[in-house]
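comment on this one:
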Amino acid sequence: MRKANYYNQAIGILQELHKDHPTYSMGRHISTALDGYGDVWGMTDKELTYALEKYKAELGINIVPEEDIDKIVNDGLNLDSLFKEEDNGDY
């Protein structure tokens, strides 16, 4: 039986993520996938592959279109202007 090559699997998952989400950088994928793991210096290829697979699965169940997420983030960054509109009676 052939031994699993987790290094190549991790690279393959990153390629799939790039194909499925071309507007996301590799850094964004890796950073988000490894968020909460603490120090990853000694992380094995197997652990990295698992983290990337888990992250990819979580992205797959995201039912909100990316455009909507971008709008939500942009609106959050501009809360000051939204509050000013409310103060002026503009709803």
